[in-house]
Amino acid sequence: MDNKIPVTVIIMTKNEEKNISKCLKSVSAFDEIFVVDSGSTDQTIQIAEELGAKVIHFNWNGQYPKKKQWCLDNLPFKHTYVLYVDADEEVSSNLVKEIRDLFGKGNLSDGYFVGFDYVFMNKVLKYGHRMYKLVLFNRHKGKFLDYDDLSASNMWEVEGHYQPQIDGHTGVLTNSMIHFDHDSLFDYFAKHNRYSDWEAVVRSNGAISNLNESQIYIRTLQKKLFNRLPMKWAVAFLHCYVLKLGFLDGAAGFHYAFARSVYYWQIGIKISELRKVREGT
């Protein structure tokens, strides 16, 4: 393996020519890399193949399993552990070293959460809301579950914000991944408008309260508390900008916190709209 890390990387794409090159270069230390593409019409596939990735074509049928679980079910893996990386993400050099050391020592947990350094308005945010995702896990111990969300408007083929369920022990890695989407702010807001359609559905039908996914313990408590709070848009802003010191990131920190607030405001009014439709008013 030429000292490669014995992990299979999975990158899911659709028209990601702006992001895919830096993403693939950041995971070059891993032994196997799949790019699972959904009909890209730009140069995504060509770039991926030139950089040595194995390109797999995916066509969603509108049902479960969605793309992440489909990968677990169908890819011809060489390795037991998988690392999911979005095309607009990079694995930092420090995280690569940490994972290499982890596999060198052995005695692995079944899954690992990783924190993210978020780039917004071309600034790496050091404060504010911090996202953790369970992206590295034993594929025999992990599964992305089915949820009641297929009725959401603008539904997409990837398991959204869901974490996999891990049958075993999980840990948290020290170093971070980098989330840096080179699309414009127009695309950022369009994406979150779509996400808010999904979240409005899973909040209104109760699915978000019954997620059986694996989570960091404190995150589970935080989510349960947040789900019960009124005026989530205001809470989201205060948590990100004040409690988590987002104001120390300057203008970018304010705009990021405000964008999170707007996201939860969108969810709130979309839930009200769904309720009126159900009640026929």
UniProtKB/TrEMBL annotation:
Gene3D superfamilies the UniProt entry points to: Spore Coat Polysaccharide Biosynthesis Protein SpsA, Chain A
Pfam family, any one: Glycos_transf_2
Domain of life: Bacteria
InterPro entries: Glyco_trans_2-like (IPR001173), Nucleotide-diphossugar_trans (IPR029044)
Domain Glycosyltransferase 2-like: 8-140
Protein name per Swiss-Prot or TrEMBL: Glycosyltransferase involved in cell wall biosynthesis
Source organism (scientific name): Paenibacillus sediminis
